[in-house]
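TA notes, week 10

Several of you asked for a full example with nothing omitted. So below is the full record: C-alpha cells for the whole chain, then the designed sequence directly under it. When grading your own attempts, check the secondary structure regions first.
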C-alpha cells in the first residue's frame, strides 16, 4: 500500500488506520504543543528521566539559533580555503561523524578542501586515508561532544605525531575542535593552540546534532551553503508545529513508524536517491539508538537494493526519499505496494532540503518514542561494551596481552567464536556444518541478521561484504543489516543490547597486515579495534544474544567470498554445507506425487508420477543423535507449495510453519529411541508430494 505524504492526502491514511493508534495517542498527549514547550513528561514521568530529557531538547532551537552563526561559519570555511588547505579530516564517531558523512556526499565541491570522515580504529582504513593527505595542507577536525571519546582521541595522537615528524612547527594550526563547553577537548585545544574551537550548545545530544556546529562546520568546509540548509530546516520546523498529527510531517512519520512496528513491521527500510545515499546511515543511528531500549525497538535497514516483493517477509515498512525522477525506483516500489507492503514517500525539492529532512526525522524519532513509551534521548546500554574494551586495554597498558577465549572451531579461512545462547542444550560448533546450520536454524520468523564488520573499507572488502549480505538476505529470507565497527557501537549498538532479542549477530574481525602504534599508548590501533569487537561480543553475550564472531584470514576478499558461497550452498533447499554423499542420498529420493481425491464412498487410489518437484527433511540428518527433553526444530526444504505437514512414527499429520525460506516443526516431548519422520508437501494443483523417510536417534 502506498502512503502519500502531502498534508491533505496524509489525513486519509491516518484516518484509515495505518497509524491510527499512535496518531490518537500523540493527539491525546497534545504532542506538538508540548514538544515545543520542551515538556519532558511526554516521554517519562520519573523525575530523574525528566531531568535528563530536559537537558537534551536544544535541537528544537537549532534551525533558528544557528542561522545567526551561519555567516561566521561560512567566513571561517572561506579562510581555510584561502589558506591553501586541500584536505579536511573529521576525527569523530556517531553523531559527530554521520551527519558530516551525509553532507560531504551531497555537497563536496572540488574547489573546497576534500572532506574525509574517519570514524574507525581499523589501521588499514586509517592508513589508506593518511596516504591521500598532504599533511601540511590538511585541516583535522577533532569532533567530540564529551571530549573523551577514545576513537578520535587516538586518531588525534596519531595525526599530531605525523605532523611533528613532518616538521610542522605549529601543528595546532592544523586542528580545530568541536565540543561542548568545559570538556577535556576544550582544554586540549587551548593548550595545543588549535586554530579554532567551536563550542556547541550542551543541551543537544550527539545524534540530534546535525544542524549544530557538528554538522555545519564540516559542511561549510566542503562547500555547502549552510544558510540554505538552515533555512530549509526552519521551514520544516514551522510545519512540525502543526497540532494535528496529519498536518505535522515529523509527527505523522513518527506515528507511522510506531504503528507499523506495533503491527510487526519493525524493519524500517530506507530507500534513498543516490545523492542522499548516506542519509540512511544517519537515520539508522538516530532511530536505532533512540528507540532500541526497554525491549522495544525499530530496526532501520539502509543501503539495501530493492528486491521483488516475494523476497521480503511481512516485517518491512518502506520509507522512500525522492529527489527528482527515478523510474526504476518508482516501478520497484509500485510492485511492493501492490503486494501489500506499506510504502511512504517523502519528496525533497533539492539538495538543500537535506536540512529539512534532518529536522523531520528528528521530530519523527521524538514522536515515535512518545508513541512507544520510551525515552528517545538516552542510551543506557552502550556503556557496557566501552567498559569491557577499556578492561582489555588495561592489560596492554600493563605490558601483557589481552586474554581471549579459544575459538569453537578454526580452519585456514576462519576461526569461529559462538555465544552461550547458541550453545544451549549441549549444542556445539565444531564444523562448517554447525556454523551455517546455526545461521539458518537460529532465525525465527521476522527476525534479522546483524552483519558487523571490524574490517577495512577497501573496495574488494566492501564488495565482498555486499555479496555476503545479499546471500544472507536471499537464503534466509530475513532482513540483514550491514555496519562497520566500531561505527555501529555509536549507532545501532544500543538497539542490539537494549532492544528486542530478535537478531542473530555476525561479528567479522581480522588480523591486521600492517598495524599502527598509537603514540603515548602501549597498544596499537588493531589491538584497540579487536578490544572493541571482543568487548561488544561480551556485552551482547551478557544479554544472552545470539552471536557468532568470525575471525577471517587474509586475503579478506577471498574469505568473504568463501562465506558467501557456503551460505548459498546450505541455503538452497535440501542443501548441506558438507557433502557430496549427502547430496547423492537426497538425489536418489523418489519424487512421488499423491493425487488428492474427493471420493468418500470408496478407497482412494494413489496415482504415482515422476516430477522435478521435491520435499526433503533437511534436519535432523539421517541417523543424527538428538537430545530428549529439548525442543528440536525440524527443517524441511521444498519446491513451490502451499503448505507442509509432518508425520512422526506414522502418527497423524501435523502442520508445519513457514519461516526464513523453510518449513519448520517444533518437535517436543519425544522419548528416547529411534524415530522416523516423513513430510508431506501440498502442491498448488491440489496434489501431495511425500518425502523420503528420515531416521534419527533420541537419547
Amino acid at each position: 500500500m502506498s502512503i502519500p505524504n502531502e498534508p491533505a492526502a496524509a489525513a486519509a491514511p491516518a484516518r484509515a488506520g495505518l497509524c491510527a493508534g499512535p496518531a490518537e495517542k500523540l493527539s491525546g498527549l497534545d504532542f506538538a504543543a508540548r514538544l515545543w514547550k520542551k515538556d519532558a513528561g511526554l516521554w517519562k514521568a520519573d523525575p530523574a528521566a525528566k531531568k535528563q530529557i530536559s537537558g537534551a531538547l536544544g535541537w528544537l532551537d537549532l534551525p533558528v539559533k544557528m542561522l545567526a552563526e551561519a555567516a561566521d561559519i561560512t567566513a571561517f570555511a572561506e579562510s581555510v580555503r584561502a589558506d591553501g588547505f586541500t584536505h579536511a579530516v573529521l576525527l569523530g564517531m556517531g553523531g559527530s561523524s554521520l551527519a558530516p558523512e551525509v553532507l560531504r556526499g551531497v555537497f563536496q565541491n572540488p574547489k573546497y578542501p576534500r572532506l574525509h570522515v574517519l570514524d574507525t580504529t581499523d589501521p588499514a582504513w586509517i592508513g589508506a586515508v593518511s596516504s591521500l593527505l598532504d599533511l601540511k595542507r590538511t585541516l583535522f577536525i577533532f569532533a567530540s561532544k564529551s571530549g573523551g571519546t577514545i576513537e578520535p582521541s587516538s586518531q588525534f595522537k596519531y595525526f599530531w605525531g605525523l605532523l611533528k615528524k613532518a616538521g610542522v612547527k605549529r601543528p595546532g594550526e592544523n586542528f580545530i575542535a568541536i565540543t561542548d563547553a568545559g570538556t577535556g577537548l576544550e582544554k586540549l585545544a587551548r593548550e595545543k593552540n588549535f586554530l579554532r574551537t567551536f563550542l556547541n550548545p550542551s543541551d543537544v545530544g550527539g545524534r540530534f546534532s546535525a544542524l549544530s556546529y557538528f554538522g555545519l562546520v564540516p559542511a561549510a568546509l566542503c562547500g555547502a551553503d549552510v544558510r540554505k540548509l538552515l533555512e530549509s530546516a526552519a521551514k520544516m520546523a514551522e510545519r512540525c508545529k502543526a497540532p494535528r498529527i496529519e498536518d505535522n510531517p515529523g509527527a505523522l512519520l513518527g506515528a507511522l513508524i510506531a504503528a507499523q512496528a506495533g503491527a510487526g513491521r519493525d524493519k524500517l527500510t530506507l530507500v534513498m536517491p543516490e545523492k542522499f545515499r548516506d542519509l540512511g546511515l544517519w537515520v539508522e543511528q538516530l532511530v536505532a539508538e533512540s528507540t532500541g531500549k526497554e525491549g522495544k525497538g525499530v530496526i532501520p535497514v539502509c543501503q539495501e537494493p530493492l528486491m521483488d516483493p516475494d523476497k521480503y517477509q511481512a516485517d518491512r515498512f518502506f520509507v522512500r526519499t525522492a529527489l527528482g525522477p527515478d523510474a526504476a525506483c518508482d516501478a520497484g516500489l509500485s510492485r511492493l505496494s501492490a503486494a501489500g507492503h506499506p510504502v511512504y514517500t517523502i519528496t525533497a525539492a533539492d539538495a538543500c532540503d537535506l536540512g529539512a529532512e534532518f529536522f523531520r526525522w528528528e521530530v519523527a524519532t521524538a514522536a515515535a518514542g512518545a508513541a512507544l513509551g520510551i525515552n528517545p534521548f538516552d542510551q543506557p546500554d552502550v556503556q557496557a561494551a566501552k567498559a569491557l574494551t577499556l578492561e582489555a586495554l588495561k592489560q596492554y597498558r600493563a605490558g601483557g596481552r589481552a586474554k581471549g577465549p579459544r575459538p569453537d572451531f578454526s580452519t585456514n579461512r576462519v576461526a569461529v567464536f559462538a555465544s552461550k545462547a547458541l550453545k544451549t542444550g549441549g549444542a556445539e560448533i565444531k564444523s562448517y556444518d554447525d556454523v551455517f546450520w546455526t545461521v539458518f536454524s537460529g532465525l525465527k520468523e521476522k527476525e534479522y541478521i546483524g552483519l558487523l564488520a571490524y574490517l577495512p573499507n577497501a573496495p574488494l572488502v566492501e564488495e565482498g561484504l555486499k555479496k555476503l549480505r545479499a546471500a544472507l538476505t536471499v537464503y534466509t529470507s530475513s532482513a540483514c543489516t550491514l555496519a562497520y565497527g566500531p561505527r555501529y557501537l555509536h549507532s545501532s549498538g544500543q538497539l542490539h543490547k537494549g532492544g528486542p532479542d530478535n537478531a542473530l549477530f555476525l561479528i567479522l574481525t581480522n588480523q591486521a597486515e600492517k598495524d599502527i602504534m598509537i603514540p603515548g599508548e602501549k597498544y596499537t590501533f588493531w589491538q584497540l579495534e579487536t578490544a572493541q569487537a571482543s568487548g561488544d561480543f561480551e556485552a551482547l553475550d551478557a544479554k544472552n544474544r545470539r552471536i557468532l564472531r568470525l575471525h577471517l584470514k587474509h586475503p579478506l576478499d577471498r574469505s568473504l567470498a568463501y562465506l558467501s558461497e557456503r551460505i548459498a550452498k546450505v541455503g538452497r533447499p535440501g542443501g548441506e554445507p558438507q557433502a557430496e554423499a549427502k547430496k547423492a542420498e537426497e538425489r536418489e529420493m523418489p519424487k512421488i506425487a499423491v493425487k488428492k481425491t474427493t471420493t468418500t464412498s470408496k478407497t482412494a487410489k494413489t496415482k504415482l508420477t515422476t516430477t522435478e518437484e521435491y520435499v526433503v527433511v533437511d534436519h535432523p540428518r539421517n541417523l543424527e543423535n538428538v537430545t530428549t527433553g529439548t525442543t528440536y526444530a525440524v527443517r524441511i526444504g521444498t519446491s513451490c507449495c502451499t503448505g507442509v505437514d509432518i508425520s512422526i512414527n506414522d502418527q497423524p499429520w501435523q502442520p508445519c510453519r513457514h519461516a526464513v525460506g523453510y518449513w519448520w516443526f517444533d518437535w517436543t516431548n519425544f522419548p528416547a529411541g529411534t524415530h522416523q519422520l516423513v513430510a508431506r508437501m501440498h502442491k498448488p494443483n491440489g496434489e501431495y508430494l511425500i518425502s523420503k523417510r528420515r531416521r534419527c536417534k533420541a537419547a
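Residues 2-25+243-350 form a domain with the Rossmann fold fold (CATH 3.40.50.10490). Use that as a sanity check on your answer.
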